[in-house]
Amino acid sequence: MSLEQAQQKMRDAGVHPRAIDVFTHYYGELASGATGMIPEAEIEPLTDVPRLDAVDVTPEQAREAIAHTAIIKLNGGLGTSMGMDRAKSLLPVRAGKSFLDIIVAQVRHTRETYGVKLPLLFMNSFHTRQDTLAALAAYPDIEVDDLGLDFLQNQEPKLLVEDLSPVVWPDDPSLEWCPPGHGDLYTALEVSGMLERLLAAGYRYASISNSDNLGSAPDARIAAWFAASGAPYAAEVCQRTPADVKGGYLVRRRADGRLVLRETAQTPEQDLDAAMDIDRHAYFHTNNLWFDLQVLANTLNERGGVLGLPLIRNRKTVDPADETTPAVYQIETAMGAAVEVFEGAQAIEVERSRFRPVKTTDDLLVLRSDVYDLVEDHTLSERAPAPLVDLDPAYYKTIADFDARIPHAPSLLEAEALTVRGDWTFGADVAIRGQAELHGDDQPRTVAGGTVLEGTVRGD
Question: What is the pLDDT, as a whole number, of residue 247?
Fold first, then answer.
C-alpha cells in the first residue's frame, strides 16, 4: 500500500513513468532491508591507475575527440548549506564572475581553441532552473544544435521511516519531495530526451562534473584518452590526502573484478579504519566522469531504464532544519557508482587542479584569494599551495555573514593555515603568514586594513 501511495503521488506530480520505475526498484531494495553497504572483505584496493600526464595525445586526436563530446554540469543545488536560496552556480567567486560565468568562458575558450561546437548543458532542479536559464540569457551564443541548455533532474517522495509511506507535510508541501541523488543523471538524460538528441546530433561522449568545481574545465587530452581507450565509462581520480578521507573512492570488487565506488555511508562501522587508510585506498573519486552516450543508451534500453546502482539509504528529518520533525528516508544513488555497471570501465589519475570544489565558505575564501589566478583559458592557476582555512561557523557559515565580515579576501600566498573563532571583520589588504589564529567571542572585532596576521591573536 505504501509503495502504491508513493507511485500515485509521483504520477499526480507528473513524474515520468520511467523515473517511477527506477524509484520502484529502489523502494523494493529499501523495503527488503538493503543498506548498500560494501564490506572491506568483498573488495580490493585500486592499484596501477594510468596517469593523465603520461598520456601521449596528438592535436588531431584531441580535436577529433572533443568535437564529439558534450559538457554536462550538475547544477541542482541551491547552496542551502551556505544560506543561499538560488542556484549555487550563480555565486560570485572571482572578480564578480560567478561559477556559471567562468564555466561559460571555459567552454568558449575550448571551442575557439579546437574549432568545435562543444555543447554545454546543465542538469537543473526545479529550484535552480529559472535563475540559471535567466543568467545564461546573457550568452546567446552558448546553445548549439538546438539542444537547449538544460534538462531537469527528477523528484521523488520522502518516505517515513516507520512504514515507508510517502510523507505528508501540509505546512510546506515542498518538503515532501527530494532529489534521487546525482545518480539520477542517467534517468534524467533519458526521460528528458536529451540523450536521444545528443546522439542524433552526432555526439558520442559526455564529460560530467559539478558546477561548483571550476577545476573540471573541458579537457581535450582526457577526451582523446577516453575515446582511444574504447572504455564505456571512466572516472577521474586523484591521490587521497588526509583531507579526503570522508569522500567516495574507487575499489575493485573481488567477485567480478569490476570497479566500484564506495562512499562513507556504504562502509560498515567495523571497516571505517581501513576505509580511511589513504595508503591502502589511495585514490578518491573527483566526481568528474566520462561515458559513452551510445553505450549508456543501449544499457538503459536493455535494463528497462534501471541501471541498478547501489542504494544509498539517507536518513533525515522531513524538515532538515528541524530535528523534531518525523524521520524519513531519502532513496539516493551516486552517479559515480555507475562505474560498476559497465564492463571495461576505467579510471585515470588526474592533476589535483581538476578538483577544486566549493562546499563551504572556507573553500570560498581560498578560491577568492590570491592563491589562484584566473588565467587565459579561464582555469585557476595555483600560485601557492592552498592553506587550510577554518572559519567559525557561527559567524561565517552563510554567504551573507561571510561577505559582511570578509568583503575583501586577505592575501593567503604565504599562509599555511587560518583559523578564526569569534566575530571578526576583515579590512582591506590583510595578509596571512604561516599559521595564524584569531580568537574572540561574540563581541564584534576588526582586523584593521593592512594588518599582517601571524601566530595567535586574541581579542581583548
Answer: 80
Of 237, 281, 225, the C-alpha closest to 43 is 281
Q: Is residue 44 within 8 Å of 282, Cβ to Cβ? A: no
Closest CA to 380 of 58, 97, 76, 6: 97
**Pick from 64, 207, 103: nearest CA to 198:** 207
Claim to verify: residue 157 and residue 220 sit in the same structural domain:
yes
How confident is the model at residue 382, as a pLDDT? 94
Say whether 88 is catalytic.
Answer: no
Measured CA to CA, the distance from residue 85 to residue 182 in angstroms comes to: 19
The pLDDT, as a whole number, for residue 460 is 66
DSSP state of 309: P
> Which of 354, 384, 399 is the C-terminal boundary of a domain?
354
Q: 64: helix, coil or strand?
A: helix
Looking only at the bridges linking them, the beta strands covering 346-349 and 156-157 are: unpaired
Same domain, 315 and 391: no
- In angstroms, the CA 460 to CA 458 distance is 6
CATH code, domain with 421: 2.160.10.10
How far, in Å, CA of 272 to CA of 269, rounded? 5
d(CA 55, CA 57): 6
Contacts for 173 with CB less than 8 Å, ≥ 6 apart: none
Which bin fits 289, alpha (ψ -120 to 50), beta or left (φ > 0)? beta
Looking at the structure, tell me whether residues 387 and 262 fall in a common domain.
Answer: no
Q: Average pLDDT across each block of 10 residues of the chain; the chain has 460 residues. List them in order.
A: 94 95 94 86 92 93 98 90 88 94 98 98 94 97 97 96 95 92 94 98 98 96 97 95 83 91 87 90 94 97 92 89 92 91 94 93 96 94 94 96 96 97 96 96 93 88
Please tell me the predicted confidence (pLDDT) of residue 190: 97
Identify the helix (H) or strand (E) that includes residue 252: strand 249-253
Residue that terminates a domain, selected from 318, 339, 354: 354
Q: Cα separation of 19 and 16, whole Å?
A: 5
Hey, how many other C-beta atoms are within 10 angstroms of the C-beta on 299? 19
303/385 same-domain check: no
Provide the number of structural domains found in the chain: 2
**Pair (93, 139) in one structural domain:** yes
Q: Is 293 left (phi over 0), alpha (psi -120 to 50) or beta?
A: alpha
Residues 440, 310 share a domain: no
Among residues 97, 316, 359, 397, the one annotated as catalytic is 359
313: phi then psi, degrees, rounded to nearest 5: -90, 105
292/342 Cα distance (integer angstroms): 10
CATH for 312: 3.90.550.10
